[in-house]
From TrEMBL:
Family named by the database record: Belongs to the ABC transporter superfamily.
Entry's Gene Ontology cellular component terms: ATP-binding cassette (ABC) transporter complex
Name under which the protein is recorded: Iron(III) transport system ATP-binding protein
InterPro entries: AAA+_ATPase, ABC_SmlMolc_Importer, ABC_transporter-like_ATP-bd, ABC_transporter-like_CS, Mo/tungstate-bd_C_term_dom, P-loop_NTPase, Transp-assoc_OB_typ2
Keywords noted in UniProt: ATP-binding, Nucleotide-binding, Transport
Pfam families: ABC_tran, TOBE_2
Gene Ontology biological-process annotations: quaternary ammonium group transport
Organism encoding this protein: Aminobacter aganoensis
GO MF: ATP binding; ATP hydrolysis activity; transmembrane transporter activity
Domain (ABC transporter) ranges: 7-233
Amino acid sequence: MTDNNLLSVRSLTRRFTSSGPAVVDDLSFDLDAGEILALIGPSGCGKTTTLRMIAGFETPNTGRVLLSGRDVTSTPAEQRGIGMVFQDYALFPHMTVGENIRFGTRQKGRDVVARYLGMVGLEGFDQRYPDQLSGGQQQRVALARSFAAEPRLILLDEPFSNLDAALRSAARREIRRLLKSAGIAIVFVTHDQEEALSFADRVAVMHAGRIMQSGMAQEVYDRPADAFVATFLGRTNLLEGIAEGGCVQTSLGLLPLTHPASGRVSISLRPERLGIRAVEADEQPNGRIVAVEFKGHDMTYWVDCNGVEVQVDAMQSIRLAEGTPVRVAVDGEAVPLGDSNQ
Ligand SMILES: Nc1ncnc2c1ncn2[C@@H]1O[C@H](COP(=O)(O)OP(=O)(O)OP(=O)(O)O)[C@@H](O)[C@H]1O
């Protein structure tokens, strides 16, 4: 915990039936003021239940929630001073967009509504009613309304799920910038790895009610602790090898490791960490292309390397056909993985 600590979740556990499994299982994490944390994991892993316990809508069986060091586990939701945007938006249907945004904010002045609508790209929508908006627009109004209340912490459940790809990326960038300048902290739930990595400062990867790994977004992506985290946060090649010290012997040859290991290990190698090229006339290939996937801005090659299939991402300018004998090289280090089931 730091001096700047805003939220502490301590050993939160929630069972919905006395004999059933814990859907949130002894979960603990901390959040600093102004920090953005993504809870990411597959459907049913307990993300929303965790948010609901922090918000005060769900009572944990055991564990505590602290806000700036104060135990709020038994404090009613409306007294916690936490903003929330859940998947169903919950806009007031009889109020205009402008009235919805003004509701709950202590800020005065004519430009409050315009400022927050501008922030979510809905300038000029203040006179509309929620039923005159698309799902994505309602979602953005709900975000604007929670920002206007200026809480120190906002909980977001799938905040961008109803926006199309182009709008989603722009909304993420703009909203992240505004949250940072306002110093508002966020815990948000998503099962979209790109969203977690691009919007959050820190990610916590959940599985079956537990946090498998948490850390800075890039660190968790680059150094996943186990195969579950590695595959959940993006595409990867999981290979077997024999490690000794800082190296591992694999079907791609001897590779350096991010940290020492020994004996039989599983390793993760992201496809963008692999390079591919056609062999020169007298060169020995170490693989053969078995499939080519054109993805617009880049390509993915599926390559059989000594009986093991690996995927390699390459720039679109490299055009190699199926069946081509190639050299696959590793740019960077392989990550030795721990056991997901421990
Ligand atoms: N009120 C409830 N009563 C009984 N079981 C519940 C209740 N709420 C949630 N659950 C169960 O708890 C588990 C976790 O649900 P939760 O909504 O927290 O998952 P999630 O990770 O947010 O999933 P998703 O990504 O699909 O929203 C699920 O198996 C769900 O069926």
